[in-house]
Structures are given as C-alpha cells and as structure tokens.
User: What shape does this take?
Amino acid sequence: MGEYLCREHFIEYFERRVYETIRHFQLIEEGDRVAVAVSGGKDSLTTLYLLTKFSKELKSEVFGVAVDEGIAGYREYKLQALSKLANDLGVKIFIGRFKDYFDMTLDEAVERLRGKGMKIKPCSVCGVFRRFIMNKMARELGATKLATGHNLDDEVQVFVMNALKAHIEGVEREGINSRTTGEGLVPRIKPLYLITEKEVLTYTLLKGIHTPFVECPYIVYALRHPIRHWINHVEDETPSFKYKVLALKELTRKLLPKPLEGAQRCLVCGEPSSRPVCKACLFRAYLDKDFEQRLIQKISLYEASTRLKSDF
Ligand code: SF4
Assistant: This one.
C-alpha cells in the first residue's frame, strides 16, 4: 500500500477494498444467499463480519457454516470465538462434525495415519473432509455462494505449493471465484483475495474481532508451514514479492483452459466429484476397514452393471 494511515482511515481503506473487490469481480449478486465458511480464525471471522455488514447494500443474505474436525485443545477455542461474534452480529451458524459425516474425528484419523507410517499427512485428509462437509452443508442450506476467508498470503502459499508439486489442476481451481461448476457444487468466492494477512490482522485488532492464539497441533506436518516462512522471509527482503507471485498466478490461470462444466457424482456417496470415486471416500476407505469393504462392493456392483449394460 505504501501509505501510513490512522485507525479510522485504515478501517475505511480496508472495508472499501473488500467491498470494491466484491463489486468488481461480481462475487455477490442481488438475492444471493451466502454461506460463509467460518473456522473461528481471524480471516473467516473478518469475512463473516464484513459480508454481514455489506449484506444490506449488496441485497444478500448471510449465514455461517463451520466444521468441527475434532482436534482437541484447538477447535473448541476457535468455535467459542465464532459463537461470540455470531451472537454479536445476530448471524446463524451451522456446524458439521467429522464424527457425524465420517464416523471419526481428525484426532482419531491421525492415530490411524500414524499406524500406517504417516504416508498421508493430516492436512490432506482434513482439507478434503472439510471441503466435502462445507459444500454439502452449504448446498443443503440453500446457499447460492460459499465464501471463504482465504487472503492474499494463503493464495500465494497454495500457488507455490501447487507449482512445486506440478499440480496444474490445483492452480486452475484456486482463483478468486471457482470456475468449476456442476450440479451439487456451490460456487466459491474469496472476498479477501487481494488483502494481505498483515492487513487482516491489523483490521481485527483495530475492530476488536477476537480469536484465541492457538495453533492446530498438526500444522507441523504441513508443507505449507516452511513455505509460509520462506515467502515471508523473501517479502521482508523484497517488498511486494507476494503481489508479484499473485500476478504470476493470475497470468498462469488465464493461460490454462477453462475446466469442462459439470462435475460427475461419486459412485459411493453421490456427492460431486471430478473422478468416479471422490477423494473423501478414498481417504475414508484408507482409514476405515468397514467403509473400504462398502466401497469395494459398490464399485464391483457398478462395474457389473456397466458390463451388463454393454452386453445388451
Ligand atoms: Fe486441518 Fe491442517 Fe489446518 Fe490443522 S493445520 S486445521 S490439520 S488443515
């Protein structure tokens, strides 16, 4: 930004920037019913706060959807912060639990991952399960948009991780709004896409939006952890590095072909999926023997019926 602002002018600048981002990219349109994915962290609380504040002007409706992964000593504190803000704002929050959807908490899943040598990391399972629940809940609650609190730093970190893994599909998917559409998928939007983490932190401090400083115990297994430190280090040495990486990301996404419309349905759970069996079912089968058997039966049945159809 390159300017020094007092408290009032910073708040005004920040809110205007988010509002203009929403308008410019048409993230929210008149009549939208917006589900805000809230974790109880500063980014998602800020998103919930601002979308509620703008809802009258944008002629939209706002509510929150949260996921309780079952991470003892962490999630309960974040959910407390969320419940306080939601009460202050008078916004409804709906909570989905890993235990109810997948019959295991993340803590239990991590024990099983440890037993299998930790070849799959907790964040991979957590991210896939969370996206599954968020989309399903938002859709079932009639949301026309699903807003997340991803900020500029998150986007830069994910882009670098995807680039390092040559994960083109991931680069394509992670924009300011989702380009992938299909029955059962609620379009995702990211109102803080152009705002840095530091700016969000400053805003929450100035506005008194409180979240406890507890960190997920599984963050140490995430590739994102060292990448984040590296990017912050380079930014300190070379100011505006993050903006340049974001610009590179946008350029790359422009060059990539738009994904085909219409996700298919997972053979096992029936949720939208880009492959015959969705990732959530594959992870669940990896972690749960009974579910693995059910998955195998469904696939065998499907293959048998496909063979039958092709014989006639
Ligand atoms: Fe889930 Fe990883 Fe985030 Fe923890 S750090 S909440 S395991 S994604």
Observations:
- Residues 7-262 form a domain with the Rossmann fold fold (CATH 3.40.50.620).
- Residues 122-123, 126-127, 216, 218-219, 222 surround iron/sulfur cluster (CB under 6 Å).
- The beta strands are 33-37, 61-68, 93-97, 145-147, 188-189, 264-265, 272-273.
- The two ends are 67 Å apart (CA to CA).
